[in-house]
Structure formats: C-alpha cells, structure tokens
Amino acid sequence: MKKIYPNKEVCIGCHLCEVACVTAHSKTKDHILAHNVEKAQEGLAPRRNVAQEGAVCVALSCRHCQEPMCVAACISGALTKNTETGRCEYNEEQCVGCWSCLMACPFGSIRRHPFKEKIVKCDMCAGRDTPACVEACPNAGLVFEDRGSD
Amino acid sequence: MAFAPINKNYHDFFVVRDKDACINCQVCVRQCSYGVHFWDEARQCVRHDNTKCIGCHRCEALCPTQALLIQEKPSNFKANALWRPVFIKNIYKQADTGGVLLSGMGSPADIPVYWDNLLLDASQVTNPSIDPLREPMELRTFLGSKPTRLEFEETPEGPRVKTKLKPNIALNFPIMFSAMSFGSINFNLHIAMARAASELGTYYNTGEGGLHQSLYKYGKNTIVQVASGRFGVHRDYLNAGAAIEIKIGQGAKPGIGGHLPGEKINAKVSETRMVPIGSDAISPAPHHDIYSIEDLHQLIYALKEASEYKVPVSVKIAAVHNVAAIASGVVRAGADIVAIDGMRGGTGAAPAMIRDNVGIPIELALASVDQRLRDEGIRNNASIVAAGGTRCSADVVKAIALGADAVYIGTAALLAVGCTLCARCYTGKCPWGIATNDPYLAKRQNPDIAAKKMANLMKAWAHEIEEMLGGMGLNSIESLRGNRDKLRAVGLNQIELDTLGVKAAGR
Ligand code: SF4
Ligand code: SF4
Ligand code: SF4
Ligand code: SF4
After folding, report:
1. What is the pairing mode between strands B158-161 and B152-155?
2. Per-residue b or e along B316-333, where b marks 16 or more CB atoms closer than 10 Å to that residue's CB
3. Strand boundaries in A9-141, DSSP class E
4. Torsion-angle region of A88 (φ positive above 0: left; ψ -120 to 50: alpha; else: beta)
5. Where in chain B is the domain with CATH 3.20.20.70?
6. Which CATH number fits the domain that encloses residue A114?
7. pTM (2 decimals)?
8. Distance between CA atoms of B307 and B225, rounded to whole angstroms?
9. How many domains does one find in chain A?
10. Which label site among A5, A133, B161, B344 has the fewest CB atoms less than 10 Å from its CB?
C-alpha cells in the first residue's frame, strides 16, 4: 500500500505542503479563495504540519497506522481503518468532539477544528492519484510510495 | 529614509506583490535569506523591505499563487554615457564602506561574446548530412597526451601497438563539470555532480577544496585539483581521481588567489580541506613553489610520481594576454591537458574590478592556443579544455571547431539546479541553496533532484551536438576538432578573423 513518507534530510520547511492541503480540501479548489475566503468562513485548516527545530524541518501528519490508536479510542465510530486502502478514515458527521483520538494519537497528528466541535485529520487525499502535499512539495520532502508493511 | 543611511535607497530591485493574489502563506518569508519579506503583526499581512532584495527570484519561483514579481528598480539617474549607474552606485558603496567591491559568478560586463559572431556550416547537395537518430554518431573524447607516431608489431595473435601510450581519460561527450570547490558550493551539489558524471560517463572537477572521503567511490569520474592553497591534498587524494589538475589561474580572477571566509568552513569542509573550523581558507595568488616553467615542470612530475604515472595531469590557466605562449610552456613542462579559463568564467567570490577588467575572452584565447601548439608541432602532446562562458550546445560545437578537445561547464551546471545569476555567492546566503553551507539553505538542493537535472542538461546538449554534427555531414566529434572551416564569422574585423582563424561569412 502506498503511504506518504516525510524526509527530514531534504524538507526545506517552506510549508507549501500545508498550502496545498488546504486548497485540496476546499470547496473551490482555488488557492486564493481557499486561503482568503474559505479559511475564515469554514475554518479550513491544513491536515499536515511542518515542524521545525533549527535547520531541521519535517512535514508531519497522520501515518495511517497499521493498528491505529485513534480508531481504538474513538467512542462514536467516526474513525475507522480501511484495510483495503490502508487509510484511517474519518466521518465528520459521526464525530462528537470528545477529543479521545487527539489524546490517543502518539504522533499528535489530529487537530481540533478551528471552530466546530470536530477534528481535522489527513485523509490521504481520497480521490486524488497523488496526495496534494506530495505533489506540491518542491524538494521531494514528501514521497508517496509502497514500502511494504509498516 | 529615517533610521537608515541615505544610500540604502539606491537599491537595485524591488518587489511587486499582487495583494489580491497573496494568501499570506509566508512561503516567501521563509525562502528569502536576505530578510526582505516579513510578517507585519500590526497589519496582519506579509510585507517586504525592497532595500534588501538582491534579485535572486527565489520567492517569486516558490510563491504558490504567482503573486510576486521581482523587478529592476526603474528609478534613473540622469543619462550619462560615461557615468553609468553601476559606477555611480559603486562609488556610493565604497564611500560608505571603504572596502573592495566583491562579486560572484562570471563577469556581466558588456564584452564581445564571439560565440554569437560565429556561425556553423551544414551540408547541402554536394555532401550528405547524417541523421543521428538512424546512424551511429561518435562523441567519445579522449583527453591526455597522444603519441607523435604509432608503431606496430606482428604477434601470433595479429598486429599489436608497440608504442607505449600515455594515460588518457575517456569522456562519453566532450563536456565536463568545471572545478567548483566543496566549500564554495555545498556538499549536496558535490554529490550531485559526482553522480551525474558517473551516470553520464564524464568527469567532474573537485575544485581546490579537496575531496570528502565519502565521494572517493566516484573517483573513476573525478578530476582532483591541486591549487596554491593545497587544501585537502595528500597521497590518497591524488590517487583518488582519474586525473589531477594543477590550478594556476581562474578566468574570473586571473592573478589573484582565493579566500573562503571562515563562516563557510563547517565541520565537513574543515575535515576535507584540512583547515580548522571557522578559519579563513586563503589560497595565495601564486603557487609559492612555482616561479617559472621549470618549477611547473617539477610540480607536474612530482604529481605524476605520486600517482605512479597512471593518470594524466592537467594544468588550468586563466586566459590572459600571452596565453598562447604560456600554454606552450605549460605543454612543454609536461602537462597532458591544458585547461584555459576565459574571462567570463564563474567564481564564488572575486573583486569586481578584477572580474570585469582582467583577462581575455575564451574564444580568442582558445583559437590562439590551438594555433600556437599546432605551429610548434606539440598540439598532440596535450589536450585543450575550454572553460568560461559556455552557454549552450552550439557554444560547445564552436569551441571544438576552434580547437578545444572538450569544454568545462560550471555556470551552466549551476543554472541547471536553479541559480539565477544574482551574483551574491560571496555572502554565503544563497537562497537557492547552492553557494552556501548553511544547513537550512543547503538542504534546498536535494542531491537526487540536482544530479538528475545536471545529467538531463548534458544529455540534452549531447543530442543537440549530434544533430549539429550530422547536419555538417560529420559522424564523429573527432572530425570537427580544430576544423575551423566549419565556422564562418559575421561582424568581425580582420584582426579578429585572423586570431580566430575563421573566414568571414560569404567567403
Ligand atoms: S495526504 Fe492530503 S489530506 Fe493528508 S496531509 Fe497530504 S494533502 Fe493533506
Ligand atoms: S512542501 Fe516539502 S519541503 Fe516544503 S515544508 Fe512541505 S515537505 Fe517540507
Ligand atoms: S509566497 Fe506568495 S502568496 Fe505566500 S505570502 Fe508570499 S507573496 Fe503571498
Ligand atoms: S528571495 Fe531573492 S528575489 Fe525574493 S525578495 Fe529575497 S532577495 Fe529578493
């Protein structure tokens, strides 16, 4: 199964992956409207988060774990593991905003929605051939590939 | 301008930000290593300080909404053919600092580019052109000393060459990556050049900064350089490459040495150069053991001894007024390859006055060296490599027709990985991650991507060279070498034509 792997050796901390993530999850799919309008109106937020310490940068997000802690912790069935695609899927309708997953995720990959009582989480860009963040990265700081089971 | 020196406002570039398109993502803020863009807390938006922009275009290239445009500042001084703005601004700068004007990359000065005056021939009717896609085309090039004559002997297995051949290096195409030291450019690009050269079957030159242990495995495609500072030179280094080059001069700064500022000497550079971390690495102007052709002869043979006569020794000189006589001396001193670096060759740092006013163009230097060595009957003793200002494959073809065996490309290789010729290499803040050892900036060159781009460039040029050769009815680069009949010139005077050894177009 293909997954997204960050590479801190070449991530330059530009945050273009975050920009692309926001646009890919917007209604308009337009950089300018997504960031200048939908962000404020809908609380659109990036599902990826670039962490930086000195010169070291890395773009972190959901690892779509084999045995996801978030799925185990979810009290409402909003989070499920799709064994076919490998994705940890999230159904916003069902989310009750209890933040159990937030506490359970060992990688801190789940965030609160800026104003709804819901979470924001990477969906590995369901519907796209290549995830938006991977496609936008100018330096191969994110790669989308099959590395076998992990 | 308040709180700043008056001259600060005579900056060269300014930033145009399309406010409707800007999404305040701050990508530009993070990309600019000169601190031009910043987040304005009070206005809650990204803004910029034009005075700091050096015109590298990094922000423009990475802005996700194409909101940025970097422009030359149109503010004009009163027109003056003598006092052009560059001279006026330089005087303001020097009046402020009292310092030497530094610069990077090759000279932007308006000196004739003879490549543009030279035109190539093609076959029509009387001799057939060749389609390189259907017929074999030979670009293979051997650099090194060739024998004056070959002797053969009969053996039971058939005839055999009796003459003892001197070591040569074999290139799949007549192009190599020029000397750019580790330190002046960072390690990522050294790995990239090493990998690209290995993949292509050509060579890259270490430059004067030594060779890091981890790159020894690319030795088959490496030329190791020995310069006046002798940085990183030891027995293993001399035996790590496929050829050794003694650097006497550099086209961008003939007659002067080098100075790698302490800030660029990090742990890895220090280990490779064998100098303490943070100390300035100074290459003296001359080699202090070379004051004559005889001394050069001694160094050439010392290096041949050290490498057991297994590799050719090259001598790189800058193209200066007496370049032909100097090259003749260099060949007589035992060099197997003479590399000539023209005045438009690049550099990591050079005084602007030297860069823009010293030396001669490579086209004239190359033609006169080739002619001189032929006249003296020693042309076969050494190969000629032309460097400094090769912009495209047609320049390569013209250089070979003028007498070069191969060319070195430096600036073109850096352009391939993003360089925009902003010429601020000496600051160590290159926003493209090229001329910098700052780990945050150097990461911008992913060695995998850089190696691919450099290799792509060479492959593209090789295809074009094959097309041009085929058009001339030649099926091997050997048939073009020194074949000036394949060149005609436009817009040159008789002396220039004579020096280039080329007929005027129409003749
Ligand atoms: S895969 Fe898609 S959803 Fe996940 S971080 Fe990347 S862009 Fe965002
Ligand atoms: S786009 Fe790529 S290089 Fe830029 S921050 Fe994201 S992962 Fe790093
Ligand atoms: S990178 Fe472009 S869109 Fe982003 S803040 Fe800068 S100008 Fe605005
Ligand atoms: S990144 Fe380069 S072009 Fe852009 S503002 Fe900074 S110095 Fe100027």
Report:
1. antiparallel
2. bbbbbeebbebbbbbbeb
3. 49-53, 56-60, 79-81, 88-90, 111-112, 119-120
4. beta
5. 141-504
6. 3.30.70.20
7. 0.94
8. 13
9. 2
10. B161
* CA-based nearest residue in chain A for residue B20: A32
What is the reported pLDDT for A149?
A: 64
Contact B256, B350 (CB under 8 A): yes
Partners of residue B39 on adjacent β-strands: B46
What gap in Å lies between CA B342 and CA B326, rounded to an integer?
14
User: Using CB atoms, which residue from A9, A35, A140 is nearest to B23?
Assistant: A35
Q: How many residues does chain B have?
A: 507
Dihedral over Cα of B252, B256, B257, B259: its sign: negative
Pair type for strands B222-226 and B204-205 = parallel
Which of B337, B331, B394 lies closest to B363 in space, CA to CA?
A: B394
Mean pLDDT by 10 residues, chain B (507 residues): 77 96 98 98 97 97 98 92 94 93 93 97 93 94 96 93 95 97 94 98 96 96 96 95 97 90 86 91 91 96 97 98 98 98 94 96 98 98 97 98 98 98 94 96 98 98 97 96 97 98 97
Which structural domain range is residue A107 located in?
64-121
- Which H or E element spans position B98? none
Same domain, A136 and A114: no
For A29, the 3-state DSSP assignment is coil
Instruction: Please enumerate in sequence order all residues whose Cβ is within 8 A of that of A109, keeping only pairs 6 or more positions apart, or say none.
Output: A49, A60, A61, A62, A63, A121, A122
| Residue bearing the CA closest to ligand 4, atom 4 | B59
CA distance B100 to B379: 41
- CATH number 3.20.20.70 given to B141-504: yes
Q: Whose CA is nearest to atom 1 of ligand 1?
A: A124
Please report, rounded to a whole number, the percentage of residues in chain B having pLDDT higher than 70.
Answer: 100
Best A9, A12, A26, A50 member to test B by mutation, with max B CBs in 10 Å, is A12
Interacting residues of B44 by C-beta distance below 8 A, sequence separation 6+: none
Q: Cβ contact (<8 Å) for B62 and A16?
A: yes
pLDDT at residue B264, as a whole number: 81
Return the structure tokens found at B30: 């993070």
CA–centroid distance, B99 to ligand 4, in Å, is: 24
Closest CA to B109 of B350, B316, B338: B350
In this structure, which ligand is nearest to the CA of B27? 3
- Please name the residues in contact with B191: beta carbons below 8 A apart, sequence gap of 6 or more: B215, B447, B451
Looking at the domain that runs over B12-75, which CATH code has it been given?
3.30.70.20
Co-location of A109 and A144 in the same domain: no
- What is the DSSP pairing of strand B45-48 with strand B37-40? antiparallel
Nearest ligand to the CA of B57 is 4
Residues 6+ away with beta carbon under 8 Å from B315: B245, B246, B248, B296, B300, B330, B333, B335, B337, B338, B339
ipTM of the complex: 0.94
What residues pair up with B296 in beta bridges, in sequence order? none
Listed in order, the ranges of chain B carrying CATH 3.30.70.20 are 12-75
Domain co-membership, A54 together with A88? no
Distances (CA, A) of A91 to A21, A71, A119, A121, B191: 18, 12, 10, 10, 46
Which of A7, A14, A39, A52 has the most B C-beta neighbours within 10 Å, making it the best mutation to test the interface with B?
A14
Widest CA span in chain A: 41
β-sheet bridge partners, residue A58: A51
Q: B316, B249 in Cβ contact below 8 A? A: yes
Contact in structure between A47 and A122 (CB atoms under 8 Å) = yes
